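A quick word before the example. In earlier lectures we treated sequence and structure as two separate objects. From today on, think of them as two lines of the same record. Here is Nucleotidase written that way.
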Amino acid sequence: MKLGFDIDDTLINLREHAFHIYNQKLGQNIGLDVFDALPSMEIHSAFGLSKEDGGKLWFSLRDEIYYSDCAIFPHAREVLNRLVEQGHEVYYITARDKEHTERTRQWLLDHGFPVADGHFYCGMSDSEKVHIIEALGLDYYFDDKPTVLETLAHLPVRICVKDRSYNRDLTLPRISSWDELDELMKG
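And the structure line, produced from the sequence above:
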C-alpha cells in the first residue's frame, strides 16, 4: 500500500511547539488550555497579535520552530517504520517552503523517520498537494488541515484527518493517536 503523510501537526506537534516559543519570545505565560481551544490553525490570536504581526513573528522564528526540539506525536515514528518494514510505501508531502526541503528531510532522518529516495515532497502550496497525491496514486493520505483535506474529496484515496482543535467539524475518518492506525486501516 502507498500511504502519504503531512508532517506539521500530523506527525509532529509543531503548533504547540511554536506556542511555547511564542510564550518565551513574548515574555508571556499563556496556558495550553488556550492553545487547545483555538478554533483555527493560527496561534497569534492567543497572544493578542494581529494576523499580520503573527505572520511576521512566525516568519522570523521559522528556523527555530522547524528545527529545534519539536515533539513527535506518540507512536508516529514507530508506526511509519513498521509500515515500511511490512513493505508499504511511505511518502511525506509538506507545504513548507521549498527553501526548507533538504533541512526538513534531514530532520526527519535524524529523528528516525523512514525517508526513502523519491518519497519526500516539499515546497508546494496547500492547493498543489492534491496534484502530488493524485500522481502518486496513494491509497491513504493523512493531514490535519481542513483546506487541504477538502481538496481531495474527488480522488480515490482514503483521506484521514489527524485530530486537532481546528478540524473537529470535518466528518472524515479521524486519528487521535498513531497507535490507532492499524484499526483505522482495517475499517
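Notice the following. Strands lie at 2-5, 89-94, 120-122, 140-143, 158-162, 174-175. We will return to this example when we discuss secondary structure assignment.
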